[in-house]
Amino acid sequence: xxxxxxxxxxxxxxxxxxxxxxxxxxxxxxxxxxxxxxxxxxxxxxxxxxxxxxxxxxxxxxxxxxxxxxxxxxxxxxxxxxxxxxxxxxxxxxxxxxxxxxxxxxxxxxxxxxxxxxxxxxxxxxxxxxxxxxxxxxx
Length: 139
Prior knowledge:
single chain
């Protein structure tokens, strides 16, 4: 199995811009969280950074071998001095990222844990199927 991210940077500049950002904004307006993907032999371990996101706002779905991570984030900060607003910041957005796991992976095979803004997903590697060779008769 090949675990590939289903989001692809469109140009070289976005690679460097995204390197320093905690998340990157895709062309369709979704934020793409930064992830680490490790191959442990039998499993893939995906760590996704989701700072400021609540556990109940995270959704994981498996459909046709594609694992989709989505979440909605809403953060507001307000600083007042002497009853006057000095600074007020808001961040709203949708987070989305998808990974190809393969057709043989089942939903019950995947485990996920969320702690301190870090989502850890453990997904089994797809077992390589034996390639059957069929002789084709030429007429």
